[in-house]
Amino acid sequence: MRILIAAAVLATLPGLQGGSALTFVVGGSRFVVSNFSSGDLDGLQTGSKEKHFSVVGSLAKVFSPDQGFTALGKSMDFTITETDPKIVTVKSGLIDGSALIIFDSETADKAAQERAQKAGKPAPAPRPESSHIELHSERLTYSGSSEKGTLELPLPWTITDSTRGTAIKGVQKTPVTFDVEQDLTVSGTKGVFDLGKDKTGKFGQLKTGVIEGPVSFSIVRKETPRGTSTPSVSRYTGVADRLVVDLTTSPGTLVARGHVVVDADTPEIKNAHFVEDQVTIELDDQMQPLRIRFGGSPAKTTVTPRGGGK
User: How far is CA 178 from CA 32, 169, 224, 291, 306, in A?
Assistant: First the structure.
């Protein structure tokens, strides 16, 4: 691994001074640390595969175009390492004060295409599904390896996830391609999440999560058959005392417990309203709701199929 440091920054080490912008490379990915008033940097020795930095500022920023990653906060402490050739792993991370984490797949795809163009190589194909994720909180901590990681949110937080892609479904036994848009928002008072690898071996997929409430969530999914302009829309909103997510099974499950209120409006059901002790939503590998199971005493549930009836 090579770590590239601008000469102006080298003159300030080991203590980084305000006004500096620090650029380094880990595992082939560029990282730029900016907007800090002071900080420290470790891992400059030749051949080092690990980089540690700690910065403070009014709103310090870390940006990696190659990873599609942005972090902002008043105080940040990160250890980043190259676990395998060209594989970047965040071993530990702490953001304290106005914490914001952003992952944007289109930013990473654009950087990959620019690198290929500069190297005179064919541009890699963009991933089939784009995603933009934002996590807001006052404080967060992360620890992990190339195989798994744990994110802890001890204070109130909100996460939004917007995905855009395609899906192929059988319509009257004929495969039809749909353009898909899905927007997910979840808020809680605290939470713990375990991350791992997806089916392709890429790290970063949510595996399990426990969210303490009050919890609120919403899912809006639009599916538009190719060649048409009219989407089918599914909407789910809900509140609960606690939310448990498990995507290690098939189907995955989202279980809401305690004072649960869920509203659903889909092409199959109209204005469904659940007031239960527990509601379980089964999810496919694209986080699309497949089935709702509910139960509780007392319970109050109203489901109206499309086309009438109850």
Answer: 38, 8, 5, 20, 21
- Residue 168, phi then psi, degrees to nearest 5: -115, 125
Among 186, 192, 191, which residue's Cα sits nearest to residue 216? 186
Amino acid 94: pLDDT:
96
State in words which class domain 144-296 has.
mainly beta
Beta-carbon contacts of residue 282 (< 8 Å; ≥ 6 apart)? 251, 252, 253, 289, 290, 291, 292, 293
DSSP state letter for 111: H
pLDDT digits (tens, 9 = 90+) for 182-227: 999 999 999 999 988 777 777 777 899 999 989 999 999 999 998 8
Q: CB count, 10 Å around CB of 221?
A: 22
Q: Rounded distance, CA 274 to CA 266, Å?
A: 14
DSSP class per residue in 172-204: TTEEEEEEEEEEEEEEESEEEEEEEE-TTS-EE
Using CA atoms in the order 300, 238, 194, 285, what is the torsion angle rounded to 10 degrees?
A: 90
The CATH 2.60.450 portion of the chain extends over 144-296
Tell me whether residue 117 is exposed, middle or buried, using C-beta atoms within 10 angstroms of its C-beta: 0 to 12, 13 to 18, 19 or more: exposed
State in Å, rounded, how far the first CA of the chain is from the last one. 63
Cα gap 77→96, rounded to integer Å: 9
Cβ neighbours of residue 66 closer than 8 Å, sequence gap 6 or more = 28, 29, 30, 108, 111, 112, 115
